[in-house]
Amino acid sequence: MKVGVLALQGAFREHIMSLEALGATAVAVRLPEQLDDCAGLVIPGGESTAISKLMTSYGFYEPIRRRHDEGMAIWGTCAGAILIAKEIVDAVPDQRPLALMDVVVRRNAYGRQVDSFEADIEFDALRDPFRGVFIRAPWIESVGAEVEILASHEGHVVAARQGDSMATAFHPELTGDPRVHRYFLEGVVAG
Ligand code: GLN
């Protein structure tokens, strides 16, 4: 199974290593043509403003939307979750979401004081808690009727899924725990 990881900025190498450790073929996607044979795409954490600008310069918006319409699964982590949302609260001017999931995401939701932290998260599809690494993370402020909530933390949604789209506010690629990557490959891309 071939899965792309958008490699414009941010934690893409860690995602590639996590996916390959599970036996998938993971490619660093730097040009839109590379999406053509990807069954799934991960948009990593990093800085959503920078990724959004680079996506515009390299012409990624239309091809990602088109491939998603054709069935390419998508997973956004942190900055990636912001970018796949329908609406971003506290976006910077010109920051455009891909609008692939019916969720409203608040950027930098945890504010300055506790901007980075770790917490054990009950993730719906997993039996035991998952260590959530949150780095200047967003949260999912509201979800549409078709969206399934996968995990919440202190009353805020931090992981959700809508068909073949998934968003996590935290960074599973930084934990060494393969379970969320496996869920994406087996449950979302292949599912
Ligand atoms: N705060 C960042 C943003 O707005 C996201 C941080 C992250 O991806 N770890 O894009």
Provide structural commentary.
This protein has 191 residues and is an alpha/beta fold. The protein has one domain (2-189): Rossmann fold, CATH 3.40.50. The protein is 24% helix and 34% strand. The strands form three sheets. The chain has a seven-stranded mixed beta sheet. A three-stranded mixed beta sheet has the order 5-6-9. Strands 7-8 form a two-stranded antiparallel ribbon. Strand 10 and strand 11 form a beta hairpin. The protein is globular. The chain binds glutamine. Glutamine binds next to helix 4.
State the gist of this model.
By secondary structure, the protein is an alpha/beta fold.
Could you tell me the strand content as a percent range? Answer: 25-35%
At CATH level 2, the architecture is: 3-Layer(aba) Sandwich
Distance between the termini: 12 Å
Q: Report the CATH superfamily.
A: Class I glutamine amidotransferase (GATase) domain
Number of strands: 12
Q: Globular, elongated, flat, extended or rod-shaped: what is the shape?
A: globular
